[in-house]
Each structure stands twice: as C-alpha cells, then as structure tokens.
Amino acid sequence: MEKERKNFTEKSYEKLKNAIQEIVNEEDKKDVYALSLCYSCDNDDLRFPKVTLNYNTLSNAKEESYNADTAEEAKWHFDYWLQHDMETIGGKKDTHLKKWFAKSPYYYSDEENDRAIEEDEDLYEKLLKKGDKFDKEFVKEVIALTKRLFDEGILEQHFDRNIPVLLYQKDLEDLPIAWTKKANPTKLVKEFVEYWDGD
After folding, report:
1. How many Å apart are CA 133 and CA 124, to the nearest integer?
2. Distance, CA of 154 to CA of 161 (rounded, Å)
3. What is the largest CA-CA distance in the chain?
4. List of residues 6+ apart from 46 with CB closer than 8 A
5. Parallel, antiparallel or unpaired: strands 165-169 and 32-41
6. What is the side-by-side order of every strand in the sheet holding 165-169?
7. Vertex 192, ends 190 and 193: CA angle to 5°?
8. How high is the pLDDT of residue 172?
9. Radius of gyration, CA atoms only, the chain
10. Contacts within 8 Å (CB) and 24+ apart, 187-195
11. Are 67 and 59 in contact (CB under 8 A)?
12. Which of 12, 56, 117, 141 could form a disulfide with 81 if both were Cys (CB 3.0 to 4.6 A apart)?
C-alpha cells in the first residue's frame, strides 16, 4: 500500500504545482491572496474523496463586498470567490487514488457496495466505517501536501510571499477549519479563522 500511496502523493503534488503555475500565468500574482482546496466525494461515495483547487483575488473580494454582508464575508466565504476549478486531486477518475484504495486495508468492491446499499444493513455499517477511515487517510495526505507547498517554498516562489491554502467542505463545519489550521502557518490563517470562529 505504501508504494501506491506514495505514487498518489507525488502525482498529486505535481498537479498542484502545475495548477499554481497556471494561476500565476492567468492572474496578477499580487492580487491573489488565498488558495482553497474544496473537499467532497464523487457521488457521495467515500471511496472517491477529492479536493478541487481554487483561488481568489483582492479585486474580486472588493467587487463582491457589494453583494456580501461584510467585506470579510466577501473575502473569506467561498460563495463569493471566483469559481475557477484549477485542478482536482482524487475522485473517481484519479487512477492513482483507485490503486491506493485497492491496496489499502479499507478496500471494498462495487458489488459489496451495491449489496450494502440494497439489502445488507450490517455490511452497510461495516463499509461505512472502512470508507470513513480511508477518507481520513486521504485528508491526512492533503494536509501533508499543503504543508509541503510551504516547506518547499512553492507558494513564496510563485507569489513572492506565502499565502494561505484554505481547506473546506461546501457546508463548512468545524472540521475543515481544524484541517486549515493544521495545514498552514498560524499567522497566515489568523484572519480566516477569526472570521469563521466569530460567525
């Protein structure tokens, strides 16, 4: 499993770096103030977790502040962000994720999944636990990938400074704020955390 997980991580890291380069090619790098990784699962299937890379600019936040209740909301609430999905890591189409899952102790087949959904409640509970554990492993990898962007100076190199990488789910709960705190240097996410904690 270690080899497959490593492959997934390395390929994902390359994809992230390329997508960041693309953002810099498209936007004024001084205007980009944050990146985000939006977490979800394809078809709500825990075997296919994914994160989608996005970003926002100060000029967009300023424009959106007329639509939001506050300037902070326009800046830190993802509904007001630019919706340019730059890259996706994981999900149903990611062969490296599939290989990692297949070799993991949490693996279960389509047949088992169908049987669990249609007729077997005990199996359903069992698979739910497995899926949940794989999901947690996936999130751990995403946090590690984010930290690596800082450790290897990728963000600083591209934007001439470090900017936060915010991890979230569409319906933001406490958990993604904890993920964001783990993944970023504390001072970078201070404003974001204050906005959500004070909400």
Report:
1. 14
2. 10
3. 56
4. 128, 130, 131, 132, 134, 135
5. parallel
6. 87-90, 49-57, 32-41, 165-169
7. 65
8. 60
9. 18
10. 188/162, 188/163, 188/164, 189/164, 191/72, 191/75, 191/76, 192/34, 192/76, 192/164, 192/166, 195/72, 195/73, 195/75, 195/76, 195/77
11. no
12. 56
8 Å CB contact between 145 and 16: yes
CA distance 89 to 158: 20
- Which residues in the chain show pLDDT less than 50? none
Return d(Cα 131, Cα 125) in angstroms, integer. Answer: 10
pLDDT the model gives residue 100: 97
Q: How far apart are CA 196 and CA 182, in angstroms?
A: 16
How do residues 163-187 score in pLDDT, each as one tens digit? 999 998 876 665 778 899 999 999 9
Distances in Å between the Cα of 88 and the Cα atoms of 1, 11, 187 are 22, 12, 27
Backbone angles phi, psi at 48, to 5 degrees: -125, 60
Which tokens sit at 199? 């909400």
Which pLDDT score is estimated for 40? Answer: 93
Place of tokens 């390359």: 14
For residue 173, the model assigns a pLDDT of: 62
pLDDT of residue 177: 86
Look at residue 176 in the predicted model and tell me its pLDDT: 79
What is the predicted pLDDT for the residue at 199?
52
